[in-house]
């Protein structure tokens, strides 16, 4: 029983990280219909920037994360402005090629600047807490709480502010958004900024329990794609629920099936759900 | 108020409209007639700034607006209610209307006032204000599309085939509403296939064929024109 609760808690931790990454991916997909393969590289950059801020400048963890969010967010804006916007009239394949190109470039860039070594990020929250026979580190608790706070803030922003609802509006009808006077270029840049920011938050939160290295985004981005396919491409609740489903399945699978097969679970889940419900769990209704 | 001077629009090598000259005076209802694909929607898209001009110029209140971004045009008061309605299907009726007031987003009191006005014009929208736009019937969606356009307080309202696919009774109602909107001082540019109904409320009209204007005149002239009657009214 203890093991089960412990694993559910672990699932909540990884699920939180997955959800944040998948949210950024699904937002961009929702409005621009670009599968942004470079999202994993933004995640990786976020980890390195937070780490560098802490080790080189000795700033505190939260401030380092803040800088990382800003930098990666701006990086996202640059990608929209100077890559994806120019490809808007091009065939969809070109966006995908460009995204893969950016991914390869950023990874090579990280390797050039920071080297190929694995780095550990020391978090100020590494104390172990013991509650009712369960042990966990503060960092893991922090991941869950921060992720949920970020998701609530994002929800309020998208639902309750005019600026946020332009993103929803554009995802439902780009031309409709144009017709009510929304500048779709600004919305696209804003979406990329939020998407990059979310990736930076996710990696800054997850790095202390994982490692920082140039390929750290690979599995995460592949799983984020599984999540948004599961949840329905472009669906925001789908990204959140999908993230947690995957988190729970992985941690339970690792315990009760085999730790070696942990990373396969995501893809098995994908095959099963797509067989049963090919449109994804939260697919947008047909018009 | 609005003047199109020798406008042409091409999509790749295909010329959708050419030599289009249209003048709309303040307070008028002007109708564009023509079959599907004759160029009415492209003309609207060029005025809105969604389609780029390959030739000619468009003037709104005497300043050139050709090639200006769509959002700038909405701010200036040129609002289009497009064919296919282009609503936000998973947003509620009220959210759609509020998005319509996007260019006035800082003026809360004004938005509330506009919302009341739209609800007075279309009471059914008030009844359904928490329903998703995608769940409405065709007629209700058309009302919502017009309502959303009105929320931005247009000076010039362009309606692209508002009667298409609607039951005759609803169509009649729709044209009454268009007249009412016009009486409030909004200039209306209307694209229609339902020539009889459209001309009965219009001041003047232009007939499109294959991307060009072939006949133009006052509503009375067009109704009396034998060829127009034969082609678009059927008697």
Kindly describe this structure:
The complex is a heterodimer of chains A (287) and B (235). Chain A has 287 residues and is mainly α. Chain A has a domain at 19-216. Chain A has eleven helices and two strands. Chain A has helices at residues 2-32, 39-56, 61-84, 92-114, 138-160, 162-172, 174-179, 184-206, 217-231, 236-256, 265-276, and strands at 128-131, 134-137. The longest helix of chain A has 31 residues, at 2-32. Chain A starts with a helix and ends in an 11-residue tail after the last helix. Chain B has 235 residues and is of the alpha/beta class. Helix content of chain B is 40%, strand content 26%. In chain B, the strands form two sheets. Chain B has a six-stranded mixed sheet, sandwiched between helices. Chain B has a four-stranded antiparallel sheet with strand order 2-1-4-5, with helices on one face. The radius of gyration of chain B is 17 Å and the shape is globular. At the A-B interface, helix 6 and helix 7 of A face helix 2, strand 6, helix 3 and helix 6 of B.
Describe the secondary-structure layout:
The complex is a heterodimer of chains A (287) and B (235).
Chain A: H1 2-32, H2 39-56, H3 61-84, H4 92-114, E1 128-131, E2 134-137, H5 138-160, H6 162-172, H7 174-179, H8 184-206, H9 217-231, H10 236-256, H11 265-276
Helix pairs in contact in A: 1-5, 1-6, 1-8, 1-9, 1-10, 2-3, 2-4, 2-8, 2-9, 3-8, 5-6, 5-8, 6-8, 9-10, 9-11
Chain B: E1 2-11, E2 14-24, E3 29-33, H1 40-48, E4 55-60, E5 63-64, H2 70-76, E6 78-81, H3 93-100, H4 108-121, H5 123-127, H6 138-151, E7 156-160, H7 168-183, E8 187-192, H8 195-201, E9 204-209, E10 212-218, H9 219-224, H10 226-233
Parallel strand pairs in B: 3-8, 3-9, 6-7, 7-8
Antiparallel strand pairs in B: 1-2, 1-4, 4-5, 9-10
Helix pairs in contact in B: 3-6, 4-6
């Amino acid at each position: 029983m203890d093991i089960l609760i412990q694993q559910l808690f672990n699932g909540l931790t990884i699920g939180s990280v997955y959800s944040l990454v998948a949210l950024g991916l699904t937002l961009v997909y929702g409005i621009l219909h670009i599968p942004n393969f470079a999202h994993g590289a933004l995640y990786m950059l976020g980890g390195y920037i937070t780490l560098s801020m802490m080790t080189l400048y000795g700033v505190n963890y939260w401030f380092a994360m803040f800088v990382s969010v800003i930098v990666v967010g701006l990086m996202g804006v640059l990608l929209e402005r100077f890559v994806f916007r120019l490809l808007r009239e091009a065939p969809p394949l070109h966006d995908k090629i460009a995204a893969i190109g950016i991914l390869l470039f950023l990874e090579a860039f990280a390797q050039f600047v920071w080297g190929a070594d694995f780095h550990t990020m020391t978090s100020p929250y590494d104390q172990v807490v013991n509650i009712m026979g369960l042990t966990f580190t503060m960092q893991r608790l922090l991941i869950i709480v921060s992720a949920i706070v970020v998701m609530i803030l994002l929800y309020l922003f998208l639902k309750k502010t005019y600026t946020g609802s332009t993103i929803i509006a554009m995802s439902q009808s780009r031309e409709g958004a144009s017709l009510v006077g929304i500048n779709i270029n600004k919305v696209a840049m804003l979406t990329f900024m939020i998407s990059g920011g979310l990736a930076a938050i996710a990696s800054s939160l997850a790095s202390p329990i994982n490692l920082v290295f140039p390929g750290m985004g690979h599995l995460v981005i592949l799983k984020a794609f599984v999540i948004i396919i599961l949840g329905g491409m472009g669906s925001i609740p789908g990204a959140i629920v999908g993230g947690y489903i995957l988190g729970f399945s992985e941690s339970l699978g690792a315990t009760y099936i085999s730790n070696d097969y942990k990373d396969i679970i995501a893809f098995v889940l994908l095959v099963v759900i797509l067989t049963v419900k090919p449109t994804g769990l939260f697919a947008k209704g047909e018009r | 108020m609005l003047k199109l001077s020798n406008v042409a629009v091409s999509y790749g090598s295909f010329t959708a409209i050419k030599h289009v000259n249209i003048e709309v005076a303040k307070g008028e209802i002007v109708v564009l007639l023509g079959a599907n694909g004759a160029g009415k929607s492209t003309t609207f898209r060029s005025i809105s700034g969604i389609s780029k001009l390959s030739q000619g110029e468009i003037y709104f209140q005497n300043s050139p607006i050709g090639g200006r971004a769509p959002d700038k045009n909405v701010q200036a008061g040129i609002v289009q209610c497009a064919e296919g309605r282009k609503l936000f299907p998973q947003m509620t009726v009220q959210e759609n209307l509020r998005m319509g007031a996007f260019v006035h987003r800082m003026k809360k009191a004004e938005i509330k006032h506009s919302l009341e006005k739209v609800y007075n014009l279309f009471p059914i929208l008030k009844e359904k204000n928490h329903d998703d736009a995608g769940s409405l019937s065709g007629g209700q969606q058309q009302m919502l599309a017009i309502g959303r356009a009105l929320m931005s307080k247009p000076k010039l309202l362009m309606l692209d085939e508002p009667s298409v696919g609607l039951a005759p009774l609803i169509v009649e109602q729709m044209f009454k509403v268009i007249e009412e909107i016009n009486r409030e001082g909004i200039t209306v540019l209307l694209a229609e296939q339902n020539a009889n109904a459209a001309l009965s409320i219009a001041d003047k009209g232009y007939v499109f064929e294959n991307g060009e204007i072939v006949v133009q005149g006052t509503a009375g002239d067009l109704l009396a024109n034998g060829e127009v009657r034969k082609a678009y009214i059927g008697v």
